[in-house]
């Protein structure tokens, strides 16, 4: 028993503090995109090693950790990629649960300790899970953060109650749990309290049903009884044009509607812990453009609400189980700094594509920690042709060959169809900093040549890096000066 009195025990439980200390393995920066001064960092590797490596530089510095770790399903999850004329599915990750929860808890415990350590004094943790592990994780979080730091248990509707769910032998399991803890009890949420937006049905005149027009505010409003508002509060609300006096002499509170960007009359209401509204609707009901082909991807609306509530612009947001990079992409769009990690190569490939093809410019470094390369070094090779033109240089890919052992399980593809992305750094120096990046597009194709690089706008050598859909990396350094 700990001094807190109640403790979750499981076979093989250790203190966890022996793993939540500082750096063991160093971060190795392998790629840099955009502004070299950017602190945004994506780490490819086990998040235990990633967080240990961050302790010396980031202890007490992260404003929000938002994680969506494996749920203990014991299932395999996939990433889908459009390649050539078809679709390729590769394993994204295996969810480790299922063989008893002891191993799952032993993995979560030191990681949650590290997150608690990395959080700033006002920092918040949002942990997304479901019915499989939520009871256990709640107790573990109480132990690590202290029960007094529990803030909310949010219930998010992940899916409609349809199909197999609805027909199962118990009620449809259609909600997930998001636990919210703060590093210190009672600390304020740094952002804006979340509001949910509900569109109003219109009557046959095109006015919002049951709403009245307010000349002064030039807006529609609905009303609710005064409830337990004191006379003093009513006077304050009256001064703000928030009180409606009925003909029968009763006092009501006015709730104004507003017109959204689409011209709909909508009502903004404070959010409680039941999140089932339009703004956080499941991914399948959101625009197709948001889908990255990654099983277990979460909708951006959900992360917008979390990040907008827990942080201010400029704050530091971390997701150590980044998956397709939803939290990182939203943090970027909302003007926050970010840190992310994932152990899976498909996740890293998708995050790179998501961030670099977003209309919002993004600068970040990619680092590795521990042993992450799935193929033996040098197993994949790339051949190129350097074209000298009147206005400059151009690099064309002519062949990529891969590691046969990685390709056994998957359909054989033409070499050009197997390219996930390729990049060129025209000034190859210590850290690979490509100015040309090409990704497989929605039709599954990648351009095979760079634009012409003006003479003089390159260094002595260029470096080409190719990632394939099989998870291989092929690299080639090209001497430029000797060929001029
Ligand atoms: C449920 S998914 C996250 C999905 C993400 N929220 C999104 O919107 O795409 C969990 C992710 O955790 C990663 N993961 C599992 N164990 C990890 C570990 N020890 N270190 C880093 N990443 C890990 C998996 O590769 C997977 O991408």
Question: Helices and strands in order, then pairings?
Answer:
Elements: E1 28-33, E2 41-44, H1 47-58, E3 62-67, E4 76-83, E5 86-94, H2 102-118, E6 119-129, H3 134-145, E7 150-157, H4 163-167, E8 175-182, E9 195-199, E10 212-214, E11 219-225, H5 231-239, E12 243-245, E13 251-256, E14 258-259, E15 265-270, E16 274-275, H6 300-310, E17 316-319, H7 326-333, E18 337-342, H8 345-356, E19 364-368, E20 381-389, E21 392-401, H9 404-407, E22 419-425, E23 436-439, E24 453-454, E25 461-468, E26 473-479
Parallel strand pairs: 2-18, 2-19, 3-6, 3-17, 7-16, 17-18
Antiparallel strand pairs: 1-19, 4-5, 6-8, 7-8, 9-15, 10-11, 11-13, 12-13, 14-15, 20-21, 21-24, 22-23, 22-25, 25-26
Helix pairs in contact: 1-2, 2-3, 6-7
The structure holds S-adenosylmethionine.
